[in-house]
Amino acid sequence: MNSVADIEHHRARREQMRLNLGDIRGDRAPSSDLPIIKVVASELPRVVDEAEELLLESGVAVFSRAGTLVRPIVESVPGPNGALIQVARLRPLCSDSLSDLLAQTMRFQRFDERRRAWANVDPPAKVAAILLSREGKWQLPPIAGIITTPTLRPDGTLLSEPGYDPTTRLYLMPDEALKLPPIPEKPSREEAEQALALLTEPLAGFPFVGAVDKAVALSAVLTAVLRPALGVAPAHAIAASTPGTGKSYLVDVVATIATGRPCAVIPVGKTEEETEKRLGALLLDGAPLISIDNVNGELGGDMLCQMTERPLVRVRILGRSEMPEVECRSTIFATGNNLTLVGDMTRRAVLSMLDAKVERPELRAFDFDPVAHVLRNRGALVAAVITLVRAYRAAGSPQVCGPLGSYSAWSATVRSALVWLGGADPVLSMDVMREEDPDLAMIGELFANWRDHLFPGSPYTAVEVEEVASERHSTGDYARPGFRDLLMRKAGSGPVVSTRRLGAWLKAIKGRVVNGWRLDMMADEKRGHRYLLVQTKTADPAGLG
């Protein structure tokens, strides 16, 4: 038999659940006070129209996203100090869950011929099913993401009111534990410097290699808080040469400032498709932070590139053939030992390097607990992010950085605000990633061999390039072993160079500028495309290749 304490515990828990649901859908009206929809044969479109209109009028939090209807939900999960914290996410509605919401917010009635009166009925199953299928015709507003921490709108105003914000299409479900101090509308530079000093405190124990690496960490803090209202933002990678240096812990400190809890992580998939599915699932949930943890070696891929550069991303949904577009408002992190970003990711991420310069960095002791420090001062830290950016705006947003393609809004807020206060430019870390990019290194190696063994400016087919690289001396040795080794590494098929693979690679890198040289293509579907190496007239000003 349950004890009195158990009964009281369950009663209190039910009451808390009722309050949590009330935050999402509003207090439920008595059944007799609910608006009525008359269900009449052959009038199903009208019934569905009225159901959607009453959903809108009820104030129930239902939104359109990625080709379906979703609602924000709150879950309690263990926090860093053992206490339960509130986590918000978006959950897709099915016919049953939508019927449940309809039943809570309106009454359906059908005429009873026997009683000669209108009688209450359950929501017709077809009403929910048809409403869910009306993609492109919904009056219900679209939602870009769900947040628990106030943020800045693009115009610099504070998004702090609970509920749906039409300007950003974000839904704010405030963390009750977060208390923001007053934030000045137009802070001074001195107030911005004080805010920066406050944001630097939790990072004091991390072994950053240099000023740029620390700037990337500060950029991560600002980006995590401001990202929901930014169209796009680069990924933030944390790398080290030795396990236990604090890569994941640094991401947890940033996440605790932005969300009140450590960052949930995913491993990189065994294949690019597997990683894509994991990322897509988190996007659909509206996850504010996504961390790809413990990457061993190279990281890239089309999906990851799109999530960091495009405001809309197409994702695969399990069990559905179509790939709907989803707004991406997530801050992307990646951590790993000797992490190498490859391909286009080298210009879509900033990198912070950690190096404790000891054999067992996991045995190091911090002078204080950074996460506990954040939890004690979280309101002040979030306010510091907003104060810093507002101060830069109040100063007239002076031009302190060069342009950064695809990331103009992020560069004009996060990056520029840090540089304005005298910090290093986090974008300089892209140069390190470019130097370590194996794809870029291979293109540079190709261009160098082309200059040495072919004639720049003269066109060659893939077959002709392979023939030159594979030419042998009378002794049987290859005349240009380095050139052939390169082609074998990139386009080898058994003991020979596949000219089909080689042609595909040459076509893929045409127009790419590396070290002042570019590969052009002369299209010829009948006799084969021809490629020529030409020297560019001007150097690449951004150094992005």
How would you describe what is shown here?
The chain is of the alpha/beta class and 545 residues long. The chain contains 16 helices and 25 strands. The strands form 9 sheets. It has a 5-stranded parallel beta sheet with strand order 13-14-18-12-20, sandwiched between helices. A 3-stranded mixed beta sheet has the order 1-5-6. It has a 3-stranded antiparallel beta sheet with strand order 2-3-4, covered by helices on one side. Helix 8 links the parallel strand 13 and strand 14 (289-293). Helix 3 packs across helix 4 (125-133) and helix 5 runs antiparallel to helix 10 (370-394). The relative contact order is 0.10. Residues 13-27 and 539-545 have low confidence and may be disordered.
Through-space gap between termini: 73 Å
Overall outline: globular
Major sheet = 5 strands, parallel
User: What is the helix content?
Assistant: 25-40%
- Multimer state: single chain
Summarize the SSE layout with pairings.
Layout: H1 4-25, E1 36-39, H2 44-58, E2 63-65, E3 68-78, E4 84-92, H3 95-105, E5 107-112, E6 117-121, H4 125-133, E7 145-147, E8 151-152, E9 158-159, E10 163-165, E11 170-172, H5 189-200, H6 211-226, E12 235-240, H7 247-259, E13 265-267, H8 272-285, E14 289-293, E15 298-299, H9 302-309, E16 312-314, E17 325-327, E18 331-337, E19 340-341, E20 349-354, H10 370-394, H11 408-420, H12 429-436, H13 438-453, H14 462-469, H15 481-491, E21 492-493, E22 496-497, H16 499-509, E23 513-514, E24 517-522, E25 530-535
Parallel strand pairs: 1-5, 7-11, 12-18, 12-20, 13-14, 14-18, 15-19
Antiparallel strand pairs: 2-3, 3-4, 5-6, 8-9, 10-11, 16-17, 21-22, 23-24, 24-25
Helix pairs in contact: 2-4, 3-4, 5-10, 6-7, 6-11, 7-10, 10-11, 13-15
